[in-house]
Amino acid sequence: xxxxxxxxxxxxxxxxxxxxxxxxxxxxxxxxxxxxxxxxxxxxxxxxxxxxxxxxxxxxxxxxxxxxxxxxxxxxxxxxxxxxxxxxxxxxxxxxxxxxxxxxxxxxxxxxxxxxxxxxxxxxxxxxxxxxxxxxxxxxxxxxxxxxxxxxxxxxxxxxxxxxxxxxxxxxxxxxxxx
Length: 179
Prior knowledge:
Layout: E1 2-11, E2 23-24, E3 48-49, E4 52-63, E5 66-78, E6 84-85, H1 92-118, H2 125-151, H3 157-173
Antiparallel strand pairs: 1-4, 2-5, 3-6, 4-5
Helix pairs in contact: 1-2, 1-3
């Protein structure tokens, strides 16, 4: 007897919820300031904040107590209602910086898909997927922080350009793992 179990796990940066209004990542869609609809955090030193995250779900194909197969869904989203900017303090350079936060999230979704493709079916696949998911989100958060630190939140234009080139190259390298 075959039955399919479905598990959905959503871990999105900053505790965002999957039912929030979202914009899926697309190479053809570029964020505009109109996409940033969240309330401004007047107490923040930041002039803009991008809320983006990876959603992840999987299903297992079971035969008795044995896992025979699995499928996954990994998607990248931007959350307009959680993203904001201070209109009098931003420019196109800051918008490009925010776009690349979104692009970094997509990069890690692709890394996640690549790692998933390398997994073998086993009775511990559920644990393997969950462990991999946690590791990807940890690495994503670390890179987002490093990106801000090295570019000084978009102020260092030379490093901003270097990061943008690096992320674009990595997205291209992992293009087989776009969805």
